[in-house]
Amino acid sequence: xxxxxxxxxxxxxxxxxxxxxxxxxxxxxxxxxxxxxxxxxxxxxxxxxxxxxxxxxxxxxxxxxxxxxxxxxxxxxxxxxxxxxxxxxxxxxxxxxxxxxxxxxxxxxxxxxxxxxxxxxxxxxxxxxxxxxxxxxxxxxxxxxxxxxxxxxxxxxxxxxxxxxxxxxxxxxxxxxxxxxxxxxxxxxxxxxxxxxxxxxxxxxxxxxxxxxxxxxxxxxxxxxxxxxxxxxxxxxxxxxxxxxxxxxxxxxxxxxxxxxxxxxxxxxxxxxxxxxxxxxxxxxxxxxxxxxxxxxxxxxxxxxxxxxxxxxxxxxxxxxxxxxxxxxx
Amino acid sequence: xxxxxxxxxxxxxxxxxxxxxxxxxxxxxxxxxxxxxxxxxxxxxxxxxxxxxxxxxxxxxxxxxxxxxxxxxxxxxxxxxxxxxxxxxxxxxxxxxxxxxxxxxxxxxxxxxxxxxxxxxxxxxxxxxxxxxxxxxxxxxxxxxxxxxxxxxxxxxxxxxxxxxxxxxxxxxxxxxxxxxxxxxxxxxxxxxxxxxxxxxxxxxxxxxxxxxxxxxxxxxxxxxxxxxxxxxxxxxxxxxxxxxxxxxxxxxxxxxxxxxxxxxxxxxxxxxxxxxxxxxxxxxxxxxxxxxxxxxxxxxxxxxxxxxxxxxxxxxxxxxxxxxxxxxxxxxxxx
Amino acid sequence: xxxxxxxxxxxxxxxxxxxxxxxxxxxxxxxxxxxxxxxxxxxxxxxxxxxxxxxxxxxxxxxxxxxxxxxxxxxxxxxxxxxxxxxxxxxxxxxxxxxxxxxxxxxxxxxxxxxxxxxxxxxxxxxxxxxxxxxxxxxxxxxxxxxxxxxxxxxxxxxxxxxxxxxxxxxxxxxxxxxxxxxxxxxxxxxxxxxxxxxxxxxxxxxxxxxxxxxxxxxxxxxxxxxxxxxxxxxxxxxxxxxxxxxxxxxxxxxxxxxxxxxxxxxxxxxxxxxxxxxxxxxxxxxxxxxxxxxxxxxxxxxxxxxxxxxxxxxxxxxxxxxxxxxxxxxxxxxxxxxxxxxxxxxxxxxxx
Lengths: 330, 336, 353
Description:
The complex is a heterotrimer. Chain A is an all-alpha fold. Chain A is built from 13 helices and no strands.
């Protein structure tokens, strides 16, 4: 338990840093951000002007500390302000529509990539030089390709040329209407296959390479030799003795790499015009929609922190030493 | 020089391939912009040359506004590599400083620096970068370099700190301390030389990260769109619908360039990894012994013909028996 | 000992009669590590036998090949190890006819391991799986070889722990929760889990402090007397073997230099190396004397020089030593025909005529 509490405290600190960075960056940037925004949207109401000023902290009454306080209160209430580009919709509602798409797509694909990659890594580490090892260079190449570039290629090949997958978007608006019925869900799944495949193929190599290296090191440990000496079946030696231990650094790596994976997936959504957070991000950047940009940053950060916490819980489940380490005096 | 040759010989084939490919690109980066057939920004208004397919005059075709893709590519390779290498050097240097300091000082400073590193690591990079760059009026090379370096050091710092702790705990460092060597000397002569391969691997990883991230940032428009880096080429290609319009020569080369540079870096790193971790190299060497393929879980192979003598002396097939010497003892049975 | 018989003998009877001859016969065994830069000759044509219920000590410095010999005999060495000559015959009560270990296939080897030949490793912290409880690791050993019903197996595991002096509550512990001495006892308990006939102990007490060392050794002796297994005790500490072993084998640079009973080695060691070893540690009894030690270092096993590997460090060495064939011959003047040495020039009293 103390281990989890320490991790929780850490995530709270990280969240606080993110929040504070989010608060100070607009106020610290050079140039007149407000002018930039206003010049892009000439038909904004004066009230919008005020709102943007408030957000950017320009000409706002009250000390910095007051502003910071009210900012934090706003965040807790999920009040991210008014959206600039989709005015007068609130940022929260715009975000709220996009998040589920991203969550389902990126979440599922990342988990699949992790499992497949780790599984292949176990085999590659065990049967060094075998077929799994030979996959590696190919997969490494796939991983070196920018996500979105690979997405473009797949899109070109499978969607445009071969018509195997749908071309874009989350669902075909002309055919189905959002709702909890099979027609919609199946259509959505169909549209998510290509983006999901992209994520899995490009990120798999990383997990596989790391697991393979950890496995090779672990198989050299004395307790694996001891397990062999005990006459245990090869399967039991590799999985219960080697892989079980090798999983721990692998899981730790997963938590840390999550941020990268999510980032890449966001950019990739743009290619597919997938109605997730990525597309929203692109629009926010091109239209200088600062409130939205900031809100996206916060939401993604919090999601990644929560995911990391979950991974930590899994690690505790798997490693008895971690449970004990925090109990004994440090 | 002979030390280098020694290392080269021990390098696995994969890593050598990576080094060679990387070398080619570095060469392109150095001399490329000097040999461009055209000025990459030069827009040729003649209609036949808009998004024209590769031809003798334009080896990689043209863009929407008649610019030569090959020229842009050559300039782009340099710009992108330049940025990545600078970020690599700065971030790696920072991570070495932070990592070694944290490990050496221990206590509060260690906790503090580790906390900072971990916080930066856990916060997702791209959204943070977008936030930082988004507010800048000019999004050129320099701001990008600064921003990437600021976010790029924590990973290496963690790894180097861990390794430094291991080395610091070793006897020869304690011995140095006993003889009164100053901390700086210990760091310079004992700690850093033992981590060369780690630092090198770190550098390669950072360069990889810098390339990938800068290209992604440029793709969504957060770069100096008037310069020709590989990322901005992709941005313009995408915004002009090059893919949909079939102009593969515009978006394929920059993307493939990034992919090949990236792959070369990863391959190079597998070699560096092996140099640092002998077990990986042993594993690579050990798959074939005397012609047999041997997995680590296989029994030690026996040379052909050994103990073949008069056939197997006795086959060995006992079923799962339940008896136990302990039982015999407990019941006072035969104990030999 | 029965020799080659072509028909497979479906081995069986648990409580068969004890075999007449050695329980483990290592004959002319050579092990090399086949590296890209050449073969490292880790074990060179070693003959060693182990009789039922006996304790044979295997002494030598690091790199002498003693561990490689034992693991190689069980085929537990990792690539690039390769066995290039010899035979390893095992004849236990359960096997009927002797079994040639070097010819066994994978699954047959699995059955032989632990059930017949078990190993106690040097560092228990490293040899125990950190994420499994003691109970699970014991059960692993038990159930792989004897499929007992669940409760019986659990009871057996508890009994094993108590046998080595650990309360059964510790079944639930993880390795890191135990002290060093306890971990080593768990290792011993685990080794005995399938009732082996041979237990190989690879420096089992080297990593422990002296007090715990004594306890563990006493425990081993007691268990051996109760259960009757044979022990191959590997250590660099010759003084330990003088007290513990029935017979002692001395290895150097992959070769066997001397073999004899403990008493003979103690009072009438023949080989110069053995004499050097004996001079390297003080005795609790008797007068003080200068500790000589053995200057120099072991040779590179990649390209061993011809003749005796000990020549560079030997006080008695002559040119004739480079053409010695290293076979073991009876020590002249020794009452025991089985006291053998590889040095034809030096005896217990000194250089021979």
